[in-house]
Structure formats: C-alpha cells, structure tokens
Amino acid sequence: MKPFIYDYSLEDLQAWVQENNEPAFRAGQIFDWLYVKRVSSFEEMTNLSKGLRAKLNDQFSFVTLSEITKLQSKDGTVKFLFGLHDDHAIETVIMRHNYGNSICVTTQVGCRIGCTFCASTLGGLKRNLTAGEIVAQVVQAQKILDETNERVSSIVIMGSGEPFENYEATMKFLRIMIHEKGLNIGQRHITVSTSGIVPNIYKFADEETQINLAISIHAPNDKLRSKLMPVNRRFPFDDVMKSLHYYMEKTGRRITFEYALIGGVNDRPEHAEELANVLKDMMCHVNLIPVNYVPERNYVRTPRKDIFEFQRILADKGVNVTIRREQGHDIAAACGQLRAKHMESTAR
Question: Where do the Radical SAM core domain residues begin and end (predicted)?
C-alpha cells in the first residue's frame, strides 16, 4: 500500500523532492495545497508540473475517510463515524464553543487500556492510526467548517485510543498541526490526554512543547484506580504522579486531571478529600466529568447534588476545579459509543 501524503511533514516533503530531483520550493507548494488550499487530489495542485503530479500520484495516496454516520446534537456538536481503507471505523467530533471550534480526534482503532467505564475498549485494540490518518480527521473537519467560513481553533486528542501508546505518530501529527505554513494551530490550543503511560510522560516532558497535557486519573489512590483502570497495574498511581511532578518541574506547565464521577464508586466525600490531598502541591486543574452511560457497563451517574459537593470539597481545599460542560449527550458523543454500535450492527 502506498504511504499517505498526510504522513509527510514539510521536512519529509523537502527530502522527497530532493530525492526526486525536483526544485526545493516544490515541497512548500505541496504543503500549501494540502493544508491551506486543502485539495483532495494531486491533480488539483495546478502550479505543479504534470510530471510531478504524476510522481505524487504514483507514490502517495490521500487518506480516505468515508462518512458512515453523521450525528448532530442540539448544542451544535457534530459526531462522525468514518470508515478507513481497511474497513475499520473511527470517531471524530466537532465541538462548538463560544470561543471557537474544537476537534476531538482518535489515535487508535479501538483501545487496549481497558477502562471499565469506557466504550472505546469494547472489542480491544485493532491497530494504531498513522500520523496521516490522525491529520486527515482535522483536515476533514476543517473542510466542513470552510463551508461556513469557520476554522478549527483547538484540538483535543481525547478520542478513542491511548495517544501515548501510539507516541511517534501522535507527535508527528502534532508537529504537522502546529506548523506555521500549514493549519498553524497554536500549541496552547492543543491538549493531549493520556491514561498514564509513564515512560512517555517523561518523554513528552522532554519535548519542550507548549502543548497541554491532560491525565485521566479517575481515582485518588492505587487500589481504586486499578479497579477502574487496569493500566494502573502496569503503571502504578505513585509512578504516574512522580512522572507528572517531573513534567511540571521540566515545563512549568499546569496539568489537567480528568476525573469521571461514577455513582457510588469514586464520588464520595472521602474520595474528594483524598484527591485534594494528593494534588495539594501540584499546579493543576481538575475537570469533573459526569460519567456517560454505556449499556455494556453497569455504572450509573453521580447525582447532581453529589457532583457539586465533590467540587466544593476540592475547591475548599484550594484545588482549581470545574465540572465539564456536557456536549453531544443526545447523540452518543462519548468515546467509542458510535463505533461500538456500528461494530454490533455489522457483526449481525
């Protein structure tokens, strides 16, 4: 199979044109066609010679994202289930905020992390996406927004999969997204979320980027986290916290902790007290997430009054905390739900 053109950074394209005895400036033209003009074929790159277009067509392909399902929420959130070239499917979400449009992208087909409250892990991990397949999700979203003269203003890598288990592709995707000659997304407008893959938290800290880091924590201690997140048995709670302290010391940047509140499991006042003690010396923000109902799981949502009480305890202890604004609740916008339904229907 030919490589995807979106897998190539500007630097990769510069090397490619040199190897193919083309003038160096051609790389910039190709990059511009991909990310500024956002064409869908090499034939549309009209300022390139026919010979160069033929070479590109022979050696590369565009990522094909075929629209299987499109759901639009009352709040403006749009969720897509895209089919890939190998009959796998992934989800991408456009979320509209008063400060701009955010795109939630997927980095893997399925997920092997095994969080017990998440639909993404149903069916396990099928494969990693290439950098280009992640890039294509943002380009596709931007093309949709082009129709109303809007733009992608921020990216969250919080779709299905664990980005830090597909680390190299994720980092290449990020470098393409922030390039000033491409989509030029500001680094501080991008957030990558991990369940706590410790070696790559250290590695990410050493990248010295301005990209935001979020951690799916979901419990204040080792025992409960291992129950909810089997990955905690591989990378225990204390090791995750040590890596995050290293990240803060190295980067000086604040960390976001994502905490899904599950009725009667991790949402008691004593859990809030314990979490506040763990985070008391950290430059961080806690994002409380009322858990989405997943039919295959038995968890229920925390009652509204208990969510506010959990928030109050953290705030009183000096922890910066908010309750996530829900979006797309009426269209199964939680990670993996749409794909799980598709898998079930195709299996029949």
Answer: 97-330
216 in a labelled binding site? yes
Reply yes or no on whether the pLDDT at 327 is more than 70. no
Is position 284 annotated in a ligand binding site?
no
- Neighbour tally for 124: CB within 10 Å: 10
> Contacts for 44-48 with beta carbons within 8 Å, 24 or more apart?
none
The DSSP string of 233-275 is HHS-HHHHHHHHHHHHHHH---EEEEEEEBTTTT-SHHHHHHH
Buried b vs exposed e over 146-169: b needs ≥16 C-beta within 10 Å? Answer: eeeeeebebbbbbbbbbbbbbbeb
Let me know whether 133 and 150 are in one domain.
Answer: yes
Spatial separation of the C-alpha atoms in residues 317 and 15, rounded to whole Å: 54
Residues 161 and 281 in one domain: yes
Q: Look up the domain containing 326 and give its range.
A: 66-347
Q: Which residues contact 11 (CB under 8 A, 6 or more apart)?
A: none
Tell me how far apart the alpha carbons of residues 148 and 185 are, in angstroms, rounded to a whole number.
Answer: 19
CATH number of the domain enclosing 278: 3.20.20.70
Half-sphere exposure of 263 (CA within 13 A, CB side): 11
Q: What is the pTM of this model?
A: 0.93
How do residues 5-59 score in pLDDT, each as one tens digit?
999 999 999 999 999 999 999 999 999 999 999 999 999 999 999 999 999 999 9
Number of domains in the chain: 2
Active-site annotation holds for 335: yes
Of the candidates 91, 133, 165, 258, the residue annotated as catalytic is: 91
Of residues 22, 133, 284, 335, which has the active-site annotation?
A: 335
Banded model confidence at residue 118, pLDDT cuts 50, 70, 90: confident
**Rounded CA gap, 43 and 202, in Å?**
43
User: Is residue 104 annotated as part of the catalytic site, yes or no?
Assistant: no
Judge whether 185 is annotated as a binding position.
no
